[in-house]
Amino acid sequence: MADGGVGSVTGAGFASLRPMVAPRNVAVIGASDDPTRIGGRPVHNMIRRGFAGGLWPVNPKRDQVQGLRAYPDIASLPGVPEAAVVAVPGALAEQAVDELGRRGCRAVIVFTAGYAEVDEAGVAAQERLVSMARGHGMRLLGPNCLGLFNAPLGYFPIFTSSFDNGWPVEPLAGRGRVGIASQSGAYGTHLFGAARNRGIATPVLITTGNEAEVTLGDVIGWLAEDDGVEIIAAYSEGVREGPRFLAALEAARRAGKPVVMMKVGRSALGAHAARSHTASIAGDDAVTGVVLEEFGVHRARNTEELLDVVYAATPRLYPVRNTLGVVSISGGAGVMISDAAEELGLPMPPMPEDAQARLRALIPFSNPSNPVDCTAQVFNDMSMVGAFARSMVEDGGYSSLIAFFTQVGASPTLAPKLRAELNAVRADHPDRLWCLSVLAPPERVREYEADGYLVFEDPSRAVVALAAQGRFGQAFARAPRAGLELPEVSLPAAAPDEAEAKRILAAAGVPPVPEATAASMEEAVAAARAIGFPVVMKLLSPDILHKSEVGGVMLDVADETAVRANYERLMWNAAENAPDARVTGVLVARQISGAVEVALGITRDAVFGPVAMVGLGGVFIEVLRDVALRRCPVDVAEAEAMIRSLRGFPLLDGARGRPRADVAALARSLSALSAFAVAAGEALASVDVNPVLVLPEGQGAFAADAVIELAARG
Amino acid sequence: MADGGVGSVTGAGFASLRPMVAPRNVAVIGASDDPTRIGGRPVHNMIRRGFAGGLWPVNPKRDQVQGLRAYPDIASLPGVPEAAVVAVPGALAEQAVDELGRRGCRAVIVFTAGYAEVDEAGVAAQERLVSMARGHGMRLLGPNCLGLFNAPLGYFPIFTSSFDNGWPVEPLAGRGRVGIASQSGAYGTHLFGAARNRGIATPVLITTGNEAEVTLGDVIGWLAEDDGVEIIAAYSEGVREGPRFLAALEAARRAGKPVVMMKVGRSALGAHAARSHTASIAGDDAVTGVVLEEFGVHRARNTEELLDVVYAATPRLYPVRNTLGVVSISGGAGVMISDAAEELGLPMPPMPEDAQARLRALIPFSNPSNPVDCTAQVFNDMSMVGAFARSMVEDGGYSSLIAFFTQVGASPTLAPKLRAELNAVRADHPDRLWCLSVLAPPERVREYEADGYLVFEDPSRAVVALAAQGRFGQAFARAPRAGLELPEVSLPAAAPDEAEAKRILAAAGVPPVPEATAASMEEAVAAARAIGFPVVMKLLSPDILHKSEVGGVMLDVADETAVRANYERLMWNAAENAPDARVTGVLVARQISGAVEVALGITRDAVFGPVAMVGLGGVFIEVLRDVALRRCPVDVAEAEAMIRSLRGFPLLDGARGRPRADVAALARSLSALSAFAVAAGEALASVDVNPVLVLPEGQGAFAADAVIELAARG
User: Fold this and answer.
1) Which of A192, A292, A306 is nearest to A239 (CA)?
2) Which stretches of A256-390 are assigned E, i.e. beta strand?
3) Rounded to whole angstroms, what are the CA distances from B530 to A677, B523, B534, B558?
4) Number of Cα atoms under 13 Å in the Cβ half of residue B418
5) Where are the beta strands (DSSP E) in A463-530?
6) Does residue A406 sit at the B interface (CB-CB below 8 Å)?
7) Which range among A99-108, B426-435, B543-552 shows the weakest confidence by mean pLDDT?
8) pLDDT tier at A44 (50, 70, 90 boundaries)?
9) Spatial contact of B706 and B688, defined as CB atoms under 8 Å apart
10) Contact, B528 vs B567, CB < 8 A?
11) Beta strands at A139-141 and A684-694: parallel, antiparallel or unpaired
């Protein structure tokens, strides 16, 4: 299978799953003669679906299993099994994995449960399984997984009962096929069943269970490289492994394959339920969310939306500049669609004026702007529908179209005319995403789908699904994320104090508020001259903690004369109020006023590594949790996009009569901070640069305080 | 029909629609022999559905219409028609309405289009129709409407082609019936068709078209009082008439009938499309939204959600304290449901500890908290499902339950056992909302529905629908809104200045910052003593606009001695800097610091009258548009709920180390302001009290500025 078909893989990254997903032969350890038992279902399914490779049941108690010759043990198998299902309990499973490895098996699919999902002993047993598999160079799926299927090969090493209700279906001509990658077996097969009921082809399903060795990233990566799959649907309760997951998403993006993902646990209650269900260390949900966004993955809010987006991806049209045109026999439905489109940011530009005039001449009371209301007049002359639709495509140029015809789509008298009119336009413009919103029985829907339409009863659902296709197009069109040049970083052994933290960050490209220390009056004058007036002057003394209490802070120092006078006052105040303190000089700093306060930060996600954060100071972070996150490093353009995504961004953009702030400078600091975090590596636990004072455009953004925390040494 | 059945109406408010919706006989003006023509469809449908009353086609050219005796004109009808359909064009329609009125007809349903939706001449023609109808004491539906149906009577004065795909269905035993009130005919019949396809009974549909006389409020009110309908689904592009709409929603609430509404035009694009579609003056969308909320109406985001909520209302169980219990064979589905429930505020309390222990003893690896994951173990012993479900009802006490069994619900071997187990528990507890989330073909779904379950393929949709039922319960349980005692208000002839505005509002119960004018030093001292220190002192002069420029503002005046000294300084500054100004004394005001700034306001909605607004000052209103609105008047408890609903509320509640603010005082001011707005009547255009300075708890909230705008005199 390495040379073509569903199992063929281009590129190298994820090809090591080939023996697991598309093997030449497969052994079933613990095969049962009863086709409804866990060890019986895979054998039964592969017999029924005609798996062409070797299918070798292992059962010490029987000569035959479901009519196939059975083998008493692994040693007596007629050849080296490329893959094996392990469906025997506890210690026997461990023994089987070991023996399979010794015989040269390349992949094991472990159904057996009772591992890390149960208790500490299970964790230890699971670790033993993994180290055995690794020792033998085998890939291992599960344990505690439902298995997988690769339908075109008739390969069904899976114990679901879903096939009672039907097998995976073939795609309509020209439509894409969907690969399903799911941590949960129950949910993965639910998705397969729901997709099948909607006529969506899902040739491959792989469930990962405990993900002891093969993770969701491996599976998505396999699907990204599998020529038998054009669209990827995934389910996760928590991503456990970063690098392969990221590589897989990038592989899918490069291959132009949309990934639609259900990641549960976004709420506190859900996250709690997820933890008690999987007992796994997973990346923070919000961080996972921004990682998915980074790669253009559509994160679905529920199963229906996941299937809708997958379904709308099957025509494999991903318009980079997506616009929506709507033709409707109900003005109200047009309004509803407009509401949904605006909320999703899917543009609905109006029809050109001259085209509107032509259409208005055809149907006098029509409203051919966009949404185009062609009114019930079309029932008298269905050729109007064709004329309107053609004008929308050819004059309006929309990449996505929704035609709302509700029950007319099922009307015995009107539907055939409607279909003929639309098909004539569609035939000339197959490069558009055509949606019909009709109320029709399933057999009529299947006809429209065979014609090439997407069919949605609810037009609002169509809008969500169409908007997603444009975002896929944009993600596919993006250049791969370029590596940033990383600064040289050498962190100190112990956590640096504020001044040292600022120096470290300054060296990395995050400028602090300009300041200098001065040991004498003339040094202070020179420093102030270099920094620019007005300045703040502060006593420098290791013995004085609260400078303002001893009169050790002078604000609004406007010129050189004032520097001199204030230098003397500071020394006098120190002598008067803290006679025993050692005074080493003064700190001269730029006095900044009228700045917008912003916080920048770095945290380290358990799975995805350093994450950059930006938020506006004050109520925005503390009360409104208005922050933008992104995996490090971020380049300056990405940093600016993060800043612009803040709800409070108008404050930086001239709201409330302020001048526009120096967003470019802030973006440079954020990007530099993110590069610093990557360069610093795992020794860095977090950075908090708060506040950064952002001055008006062209005047810069300066860190006024900074805290760097180092990781506890392991 | 007034004496029983679908047409019977209790109460008086909306009974005047009886002759239109449930007449003893009906004339069809412009009746056609062709059953597919606009004038033919009503006759055809009523013949087919056996309308028992008189059905009198009027057609000057034929003796018979579709086998019925036809009459040449209105004068020759065999009796006075209670209702009449008008399906003749333009001037003929006007003439028909007039003649019908003269004969004593009580209700006309005008299909004819070309009125206010078209041009100015149409507006005038529509006004003539209405004044004719009013003159004759007739109710008028439309013009430009699709008509209505009242299926139990076989009464179908409507020209839709929807019945090609099926008639309204009967409800399952015990399930509620749905009345549809829709401005749009196309959307109303779309809703009917989609409901029918889901097995939902919709005995009554009324479309209002141009709403020249009968409005959506009339129709909702009729349905609220109609014994043949227990649930109301409504569609509007913009509510045009306030009082009857409000009375209708209150009638529905009192009758315990949920109203589920699609109100389109929530986005700017949608609102624009709605305006160009209906050309009507309608209330602001946001105001309409809060009015719907006030009466417990569920505003659906799309058609699917509307139908889901209506469907889940059919068991007519509206738990006031709604809690959700989830039993699942997929841990992941449980997490997904938890995410959705938390976002919708539907509580999922855990099972009691002892019950969890009992369940864990039944299935060792189960996780019986809530969601309750009973694992695939139940496939070996389906009695476990019964045991788990019973414990959830009896020990967990949940009012709503979701059982996620995906394809098991369709499995030939497992589904019958599952059904029997659940039915046994359900039979003992029919007072719970039971949802099955299964992947099953329609015929299997119908079986579960007949058993009493709600069935949703997607469990997230079930959560939305279940959460809505609890909110209905809460709305039904609320005491009717009590009238507030209104203040005596006499507005001045011209817009008042700030001081007068504050005096007017103070008299109405909105206290301003304490202040007093003083004409002498000793008056100033007495005023300061009464107000409490520290105070601010300001020069009072009609000739000085910018007081601070002449040294006319003194802050932080701490005691009586300081009052005297500052009084002298103010007088000296005036003499020095503004020698020609007339000085009438000083203003002494409480100096307030550490307050949270809040804005209160009143605007007048074109449809719903005065609307109260509250928002936090600064970025919250200007950048984040974080405001709460409510129709006036609001009592103190409602006012406090508005304040607590603000995203920025934590700032009033002790965030960022502040003391808690005097929310009670702020709520009193907001309530008083709303009562003032009602009392002031239409002469009042708007009020802006900004800022209100809210001090720490127990110290009050004071208006620091106020603007009152009067309505332009008509």
Assistant:
1) A292
2) 259-263, 298-299, 324-328, 367-368, 372-373
3) 60, 11, 11, 13
4) 26
5) 515-518
6) yes
7) B543-552
8) very high
9) yes
10) no
11) unpaired
Look at residue B111 in the predicted model and tell me its pLDDT.
Answer: 96
For residue B12, what pLDDT is reported?
Answer: 40
Instruction: Name the DSSP letter for residue A301.
Output: S
pLDDT one-digit tens code per residue, B542-578: 888 778 788 898 999 999 999 999 999 999 999 999 8
Q: How far does B338 lie from chain A, in Å, by closest CA? A: 5
Closest-CA residue to B158 (of B133, B186, B195): B186
pTM: 0.91
Nearest chain B residue (CA) to A116: B365
Q: How far apart are CA B168 and CA B197, in angstroms?
A: 9
Q: What is the pLDDT of residue B9?
A: 32
Judge whether B665 and B621 are in contact, CB under 8 Å: no
- Within an 8 Å CB–CB cutoff, is residue A365 touching chain B? yes
Write down the pLDDT at residue A275.
Answer: 62
SS3 A549: helix
Residue type, A528: A
pLDDT, one tens digit per residue, over B47-106 is 999 999 999 999 999 999 999 999 999 999 999 999 999 999 989 999 999 999 999 999
| Structure tokens belonging to residue B584 | 């009438």
According to DSSP, residue B147 is labeled B
* Beta-bridge mates of residue A141: A109
Scan for tokens 């007449």, then name that residue.
Answer: B23
Closest CA to A451 of A204, A175, A658, A677: A175
Residue ranges and CATH numbers for the domains of chain A are 15-313 (3.40.50.720), 324-477 (3.40.50.261), 514-590 (3.30.1490.20), 596-710 (3.30.470.20)
Whether a cis peptide bond, with omega within 30° of 0, leads into B143 is yes
**Phi–psi pair at A614, nearest 5 degrees:** -135, 140
Give the whole-angstrom CA distance, residue B63 versus residue B43.
Answer: 15
CA A471 to mean position of chain CA atoms: 12
Largest CA distance in chain A: 104
* Residue B193 CB partners (closer than 8 Å, separation 6+): A406, A407, A439, B162, B165, B166
Angle made by CA atoms B401, B402, B406, in degrees to the nearest 5: 155
Question: How many Å apart are CA B557 and CA B638, to the nearest integer?
Answer: 38
With contact defined as beta carbons under 8 Å apart, do A162 and B330 qualify?
no
| Maximum Cα interatomic distance, chain B, rounded to a whole number of Å | 104
Q: Chain B window 670-709: which residues touch A at a Cβ cutoff of 8 Å? A: none
- CB < 8 Å from A in window 29-68 of B: 36
Alpha carbons B566 and B532: distance in angstroms, whole number? 16
Do A708 and A673 meet the contact criterion of CB atoms below 8 Å apart?
A: no
**Residue B16 DSSP label:** G
Contacts of residue B292, defined as CB under 8 A and 6 or more positions apart, other chains included, come to: B249, B261, B263, B299
Beta carbons of A512 and A703 less than 8 angstroms apart: yes
Q: Give the distance from residue A98's alpha carbon to the nearest chain B alpha carbon, in angstroms.
A: 27
Of A235, A367, A655, the CB nearest to B277: A367
Are A694 and A666 a contacting pair, CB within 8 Å? Answer: yes
Residue B649's CB is within 10 A of a number of other CB atoms, namely 19
Q: Return d(Cα B643, Cα B650) in angstroms, integer.
A: 10
A183, A460, A620: residue with CB nearest B302:
A460
ipTM of the complex as predicted: 0.88
Span A287-303, mean pLDDT? 95
pLDDT at B274: 67
Number of residues that make up chain B: 714
Dihedrals phi, psi of A321, to nearest 5 degrees: -110, 85
Tokens of A680: 């610093």
Average pLDDT, whole number, for chain A?
A: 91
* pLDDT tens for each residue of A363-372: 877 788 999 8
B296-309: average pLDDT: 97
